[in-house]
Amino acid sequence: MTTEPFAAVDVIRAKRDGSRLTGEQIDWVIDAYTRGVVGDEQMAALAMAIFLRGMDAEETARWTGAMIDSGERLALKCSRPTVDKHSTGGVGDKITLPLAPLVAACGAAVPQLSGRGLGHTGGTLDKLESIPGWRAELSTDEITAQLEEVGAVVCAATPTLAPADRKLYALRDVTATVEAVPLIASSIMSKKIAEGAGRLVLDVKVGSGAFMKTREQARALAASLVEIGAAHDVATTALLTDMGTPLGAAVGNAVEVAEAVEVLRGGGPADVVELTLALAREMLALAGLGDVDPARVLASGRAYETWCRMIRAQGGDPEAPLPKPAHVHVVEATESGVVTGLDAYDIGVAAWRLGAGRARKGDPVQSAAGVLCLAKPGERVERGQPLFELHTDTPEAVAAALPLLDAALTIDEKGADDDALAAGKANEGVVLERWESGRS
Ligand code: URA
């Protein structure tokens, strides 16, 4: 019989009572959980104790290290400087799609190992899988070759990367322990560090459609992420960005790909372009390519060419028509006025109910499902004007989405006065704050 150096119940009790966990306790509990020696019920209790009591920077860095060590590390080699980006998750967040080829077209290499969506936030792989023929699963050799030849890869993370996080994240999802700063920060950073990221830009979302609802919470997460980066020798920058309103007009799968392609062709919604360029500048600065102007590269069409090569390299046809929904329902304005609010969470749940997302891991998603938001905060609308287009293959889902759209949108009937426009945040940018190496 193998003897374990600790008893799980003592580790749980220590954190429950507000003590710091020792490095040895942390290494053991993560390893023992991965081996199945610590049970789900014990890890759930420990996650709740951490949720309530927190972990300091040293504990969080050690916890991250233990999760990295639960699996393999990927060492991707490339002749160009590599730089990665991660978003904490939002509604209409298709930024990876234009960003990865743009940064590659600027001279860096972007290995972006992504996940599928769960709940109201969409997953990058679900979006890309709406492109006919496109393949998410790549071998390490294929990733390396594509990185060298194209400069950008967006594909599924392999199951051997941070397996402790895979198990713990699924457990947190069903035990109301997701929204704990040290657990979110270690979860994200363990995967990125295991992937071999040496330079990382984090898009920390704040607002109703994000995990962090307030700026204070988002700042704490940004600070923890950059601290872990520093502790593990990863040059890390974090931008706090607005997720009170969906990004762009499109929320779903194929509709978001179409919007990303608009951006790559020089058009697209202003907020999507703004955030894509802001993140590109941060990535290029970390990669030592700070003198390259991503706006010029975007306008030149080179980012779109790189997108086409990236999609083709993974079996997709970038020119093929995207899937169309079996049913489209249009919601019109019942009054005239100025749009003063469009709640990201409600829109995310509406798109999910239409079939764009999944309720359980492994569920299929509808490629064509989603919501087009045709009026954004700050815009004037007239009675009878289309406000939303609902796309779905299951028309019976429309009834479940409509109340959410109704709740999401606020219209000030008084008209386009200054107060209404200010309430609609028409002039506030997407990027709110910047964090780097533990300072703002
Ligand atoms: N994304 C992750 O990868 N982990 C979390 O805990 C939350 C968001």
TrEMBL record:
Organism per entry: Saccharomonospora glauca K62
InterPro entries (alphabetical): Glycosyl_Trfase_fam3, Glycosyl_Trfase_fam3_N_dom, Glycosyl_Trfase_fam3_N_dom_sf, Nuc_phospho_transferase, PYNP-like_C_sf, PYNP_C, Pyrmidine_PPas_bac/euk, Pyrmidine_PPase_CS
The keyword Glycosyltransferase is assigned to this record: yes
UniProt record similarity statement: Belongs to the thymidine/pyrimidine-nucleoside phosphorylase family.
Protein name: Pyrimidine-nucleoside phosphorylase
Gene Ontology biological process terms in this record: pyrimidine nucleobase metabolic process; pyrimidine nucleoside metabolic process
Cellular component terms per the entry's GO annotation: cytosol
SUPFAM superfamilies hit by this protein: Nucleoside phosphorylase/phosphoribosyltransferase catalytic domain, Nucleoside phosphorylase/phosphoribosyltransferase N-terminal domain, Pyrimidine nucleoside phosphorylase C-terminal domain
One of the record's GO molecular function terms: thymidine phosphorylase activity
Entry keywords, A to Z: Glycosyltransferase, Transferase
Pfam families, per the entry: Glycos_trans_3N, Glycos_transf_3, PYNP_C
Assembly, per entry: Homodimer.
Domain Pyrimidine nucleoside phosphorylase C-terminal: 338-412
